[in-house]
Structures are given as C-alpha cells and as structure tokens.
Amino acid sequence: MDTAAPYLTGQASASASSPVLGLVSAIVHAVGWVITYWWVVALAAVVLWAAGEALVRHLARKASAERMALELVPSRHFDPDLEEIFRRGVQLARASTSMPWWAPRRSKTVQIRLRADGSSPLRYRIEGPAGGERLLSITPFGPALTVNRARPLIDKARDHVVRAEFILRGKPTAPLREVPLNPDPLQPLIDAVSDLRAELGDLAEIRLDIQRAPKWSLRARRLQLMANARRAERREAQRATRWVRQDATGIEDSLTWQLQQLVTGKQGGGGRRLVMPPVPRRVDPEEALGKLAEDDHLVRVQLLVMCASNTEGRAEARLAQLQAALDVFGGGSRWAMRGWRVGPWRFGADRWPSRRGFERRWDLGHCQPPRANWVRLEELTGLLKPPTAHCRLPLLASDLPTFEFENPELLLQGIYRGPDGRRRLVATYAKETLFEVGVGKAGGGKTERALAQAIGWAHAGGGIMFVDPHRDSWPRALPFLAHDHLMQRIALIDLNANGPAPQVSCWNPIGMHQGQVAHEVVEATADAYASVLGWDDATAPRALTILTACLAVLVAVNEAACQAGQPEDQATVFHLRSLLTDPVFRTTALTAVEGRLDEETRSWWRTVFPALPTDAFAVVLNPIARLAANPVTRAFLGQPAGVYNIRAAMDSRMIVWVCPGGNGPTDRLITALLARDLLRAVRSRRDTPEGRRVPFRPYFDELITLTGAAPETIAAMFEDFRKYRVHVHGMTQLLARLPIPVRLSLLQNASTLASTAGSQSAVSPITAEWGDRPSPDVVAALDRFEHYMSLTVEGRRVGPVRITGPHLDDVFADYARPGRAGALKRAARATAGAAPLGQLTDRAESQLTRVSAFLAQHTPAAQSAVRLQKKRKYK
What we know:
Elements (H helix, E strand, L loop, with lengths): L3 H33 L1 H27 L2 E8 L7 H14 L14 E7 L6 E7 L3 H5 L7 E5 L10 E11 L16 H6 L10 E10 L2 H38 L2 H10 L20 H5 L8 E12 L4 H13 L6 E5 L2 E3 L2 E3 L6 H11 L9 E3 L33 E8 L5 E7 L6 E4 L6 H14 L3 E5 L5 H9 L2 H4 L2 E5 L8 E2 L13 H16 L7 H23 L11 H7 L1 H10 L6 H10 L9 H12 L1 H7 L8 H6 L3 E5 L5 H19 L12 E5 L2 H7 L1 H10 L8 E4 L7 H10 L2 E4 L4 H10 L6 H5 L5 E8 L2 E9 L3 H4 L9 H11 L3 E2 H9 L1 H11 L2 H15 L1
Parallel strand pairs: 14-20, 14-21, 15-18, 15-19, 16-18, 19-20
Antiparallel strand pairs: 1-3, 1-4, 2-3, 2-6, 5-7, 5-8, 6-7, 7-11, 9-10, 12-13, 17-24, 21-22, 22-23
C-alpha cells in the first residue's frame, strides 16, 4: 500500500494536467492558424460587416419609404415664445421614434428642411416618420401658424452643385451660443439667400436631422469624456509637481539661500527639504460633462447643406454665405464644415469617399451624425420654428411680380431695390388691386406714381378717369399719351378756360339723351346739391323737397324731348329758376309732362307748391345763381345735349381727364355733380353681366378737395365700386383732414396703402395699419419719391416694403412723344366736344326760348290744335 500510493498520486496529476495542456495547445494552434491565415479571418469579418450593413440599409430604405412631410406657413404676426419653441422641440424628438421596432437607428429621425428656390424667401418643412404625423401636425404655436400636408419636392438638375456637412467643433461639452429671438435667429440664413435668382437656377437648402440620444452611445461618450478629464487632471498635477520641484531646487541652489544658511549658521543641516507633490483634483462630473451631464432633452443632430445653380461660382458663393450665417450660432462650440483643405482643394462631402454617403443620407433622410454632434434642445431654439414677425424677409419675384409694359394683367407700383442692389419694376395683379390710397406731403411723389400707373394701364388698353382739380397732371402726362392708338380714346374735360381763346366741353346733368333712368338722374343731381350745401332731411327738408320736385319736372321734359327726337330742346339745371319764378313757364311745363309725373308729384305741385312763400325758393336758387354767374360753368352745364358720358367712357375703355378748375363753392358743386354722376353710372352697370363689365380705374388727386364737395359719395365709391369692376385710386396729403366716412372706407377696403415722407402725425394713421413697423419716424424721414407700401398679391398682404416711386422720364422714356403733344390736345378736346367759350355761352342763354317753344308745341291744347289742323287739311 505504501509503494502504490505515490504511483497513484502521480497518475492522477498527469490526468488532471492533460486537458489543460490540450486547451493551451489548441489555443496556440488556433492563434498560429489565424496568424498564418489572417486574410481568411479578415475576409470573413468584411463579409459579415458587408452583409450586416446591406441588411441595415435595406431596412432603413424600407422605413424611409413610409415618411411624411408637413409645410409650416407662419402668418406675419407669428411670434412664439421660448416655451412654445421648446415644446415643439420635444415633439420633434418624440416623433423621431415613431417607427417600427425593426427600423434601424439611422432612419429614426425628424428632419427640418429650410429651402430657398425662388418660390418664397425660406420654406420651412418637417419630414419624419408617418407614425408621427398626428403628433407633428398639432403644434404649440396656435393659429398664427398653418400646418399643411406637403407634397414631395422634385428638383431639376443644376449644372453646378456643392455639398457640405457641418459638425460641432470646439469644446465638445460646451453649448452653442444662446441667440435671442429678436431679431429672429433665422435672419442671417435668410439674408444669405436673399439675393437668390430663380431664373439662374439658384437653390439653397439646409437639412437638420434630429434624433433622440441612444443610451449606450451617451454612456460611452460620458465615460470617454470623464476619462479624458481625469487624464487631463493627472497631467496637470504632474506638471504642477515638476514645477514645484524645480522651484524648490532652484531656491536651495540660489545664492540668496546659501547666504541665508551662512548667516543663520545652519550649514549642511538636514539636506534638501521634502517637497509634497500636488494631489490631482477630483473631477466634477457636471463640469467635465457640461451639456452632456443630464439625459433630458439631449439629442444628436446632423446638419447637411446643398447649394446649386446653373451659373458657375454662384453655388460656391452661396455656400460661403450660409457658412458665415451659421457662425452666428457659435459659442463654446460652433458649426464648422467637415473635411480638410489642401491648398486650393477641399476634401469633404463633395469628394470621394464622403460624397456617396452624403447623397444617400440626403436622398433617404438618414441620420448618421458624427460623435461630437450632441446638443440640447435649448441650443436649437433658432431652428425649431419658421421665420417670425421679427424676421425681415426679402421681396422675391414670386412675392411681387415684375412689371411688363402693355400687360393688362399687371399694374405698375414702383421700383424695388433688392439686397444685391438690382432694381426692378414691380407690379400687382390688376384684378386684385381694387382700391389704393396714397398719403404724403406735397411734392413727395404721390401724383407722379399715380400718373405712371395710369399711363401704364392706358397703354395696356385699360380705361381711366383722372380727376385733378389743379390740372398739373395733364401737361405732365401729355407727352407719354401722345400715341396714335390712344388719341381716339382720350377726352379732356377742362374747366380752367386758359388761353386767349378758351374752349370748354359741355354736360347736362339732367339730360336724358344717353338713355339714363329718370329717377336715378333726379336722385343723383339732388344728392349732389345736398352734399355740397349740407342739406339733409333734418336741416333742410323743404329745400330738398322743392329741388326734387323741380328736377322731376325738368327730367320729364327732357325725356319727352328725347322721345320726340329733339334732344337739342332739353332743359338744363338753369331752368330751375324759370320753373320756380316764371308762372307761364311752370304752367306750360307741368301741362306738357303731366302724364309723365307720378300722382304724388302732381299732387305736390297742385296743393303744396301754391302755399309756399316766395322766400322759400331762395335757398334752392342761390347755388343756381352762382353757377349761372360764372361763364365757364354756365357754358359747361347750360347745353341741352352734352357730350360727357362717363358710363359710355367706362364701357369703351376711354381715358378721361377731368380738371374741375379749383376748390371754391362753385367748383365744389361741379365736382359733386360729376362725382354723383360717376356713382350713378357705375351702379347702372348692374344691367351688364359681371363677366362682361369692363374694368375701369378712376384716379382722384387731392382727395381733400374732392371729398369736401362730396364726402358721402366718395365713401360710397370705396364701398360699392368693387362689385362693378371699377377700382378707385385716391391721393391725399393728410388722412386726418378727410371726412370720417371716407377715411374709414379707404382704410378698410384699400388693397394698397402707400405713404411718402411727411410729418409723423400725418403718416401715423398709415403706419398704425402696419402695426407701426416701420414706425412713423422712419416713414417721415423718407427721401423724395420713396414710399413704404403694403400690397395685395394672390390674396395675401405683402409688405410694408420700401419702394421707389417711378419717374415718368425714366420709366416711360421710350414712350415720350413731345412732338405729338399738340395733336393730342386737339384730339382730346374734339373727343370731349369742346367748343369756344363764347359760342357755348350764347347757346346757353338761348336755351330757355328753345325749351319754351318745345313745351308750347307739346301741351295737350297745342297737340289738339295740330291734330285738328291736320284733319282739315286731309278733308
């Protein structure tokens, strides 16, 4: 037993060591095989990686095919606060995970697309998983932002394209700069694309992908940062220790220290002093991790930029502008272009091998950001919302169309100077420009702009009526209208009677030879008188009644004359005096038209009129006497069948220039008659189907003068004319001096509001309509011919924007025909039926005799005598 024990023990030890030796031997053989056949292992690893990457890409493509797009359209008053923007960021981060469980991480992203292609200053789109549409469609911004389902964007190929990927550089734990909301953080980006030209194929787009932070990646990043911080602290401690030792050694070897030892008698005692090295400082996680210390609202981002153009060099320049714009967000960290530069070449997203990966991420919306692109939602405040009310947007050709000469669809507005210094004529669409209001001091350019607009509209075939009490606009516009194709359409109604042989046109406000409706003529004339004289049913009921009854008789007389084929025998407004003061004329007139008057009017003349005192007629006859005392107004209104017919002028696209002659009491009465007749004529277009109503544009210069004569009439024009395709343009120096009804109607219905320079109190009513942006002091300091104006284009308001008023000598220089101005004057007077003033005055004085003779022939007794005489003749 004693001899067998060692043998058994040795056998057991050999058995136990054999598996270990075998395992070691197998490992050695495996390592040797791997070393010998390393290429097989490498190839297998590559194959597995490729297969895994292909599978991930396939799944990512499949997931990306189920994406949706939303377009966010802010209103001009969109002004969110920080909390609303932050909540939107939380929504975006949450929506990025609304994907199937099998979707790869790179496809779990929400993309913000900022795009400028000429259709708008900056389009703001959100693209993300289809499952997050409901979450993204309801925003915390309220009704100031409209969310629309967007269609896929298809771009045409451009000749020159540049690409760039931006990564965060600087201290990896430091945040981006906190950019205030006013001015808008997007302003630098919008300024960078403000000179974009769609006709050159310019395109600029920024895509920001937001992805929720994966926990494992965040933990790994934190471990790395903490390790780096500890190493840095240890290196700092070691560096400090070296400096302490060097300082101690230097002190002991110095002459000063040696002398101190000799003086104190402590030479050679104790050796060198013991130096305690600094202990490494404990690393504070919050200080070392910075913005990565907390998990909440931490996301990874990917920022891609592409610029394109059909003109060489413009895409590169655009990318440089966007790069400079992104520098605004730079703080402890900043956005920098990924890649490296070698001499004149830059190796980045535009070159191999990065370009293919960039295009795949760009086309499919995949997010594969660099390790450094960690941000908190607060750092992205400026990019999480569309442009706000604090953003200054450029005016693109798509916002305000470019004016084209002789295009009847466009209405000239002025000259816009773009951010790149280019100037272009801008216009609005004629069908949308219903009413315009221009305010500003005298000489600021209001009338010049209106003349340019009217002349452009006339050359495009449109009809206009330019009412100018001071006549200055007519000689200014004359050379630019002196074209053969316009001369037959132009009529001049000039009551200034200038020159040695003045000529005046004529008009009978109560004439019936143009097919007017009798009661409408009576109403229009009576209302014009009442407007100027301040009559109403409370202050002058008897005067209104007398005037209306007289007009009803005279209009009936004129209706009878026209039906008898004798329009030259019509009565005029001056026959009111004969009707009231001449019993013979009154009896003859009432007898001749008794059958044409309604019973109430006949009863009034039989019962009420005889009881009226004589002095009751003075208030009615006084304005008639003033009109008759002026030779010009006597000649203008005293003709039986005047040529002036504003309804025919509207329907035949005439160009009518009306110069009333001043702003005295008589002139105001003429203006009121013309204004009320215009209102009557426009309302008479109800007999024409809407589609066949010809557009017509009256221009009212010096609204203060015009509204002083007919305030209610002018206000009614701004309220009613749109229905009949008549669009009024008004100019005034002071809105405050206009009657309240006119001012309210102007501001309520104006498609275009424009203001030149003036006092702050004068322009403040206009700037108040714009929310005081620009403020009154800015508008008050404008140079001559400069305007701030708000316009209506495609149903939305554009501006206020600064526009230079067009100058006729510059804009219409090619249309000037000064040598034909004389011919145009003669043609315009001939079209208006102008005749020498003396001839018309004589005719007006003899008109009472003609009317009396006509009435005498058409009384029932005279008609019976004529019939009896004819019977005897036949017998």
